[in-house]
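Handout, section B. The chain below has 122 residues.
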Amino acid sequence: MNHDTRTEKRIAQTLRGGILLSGGFMLAGFLLHVYGVLFSPFVGVIREAHFAEEMWHHSFIDLLQQPLTYIYLGILTLMFTPVVRVLLTIILFAHEGDRRYVLISSIVLVVVLASIVLSVTH
């Protein structure tokens, strides 16, 4: 197997892993929500509309019982999967000594991070 094929496989595995991890978090949130609706009045006690504000007033254990915690983790994982992919690309290009593509990938990384920051803050 040549070097380019291994590089492409690593990048594909990174993307696949991020999507699977994100889906797993979201599925866990959904299942916890269904469990809370059916069996437990204590699951999901933080109101969805104010989750981001109220989460700072609860313990870590309380947050682990909230379906939205897992759904947000899934969304964040999905958002940062491309960041990890671009970082991996930068590392692989640097390892190959290809400065031009390291620079291009670094610019892409800055653009992706800026778009994430702007989308979260606005």
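Note. DSSP finds five helices and no strands in the chain. Compare this with the example in section A.
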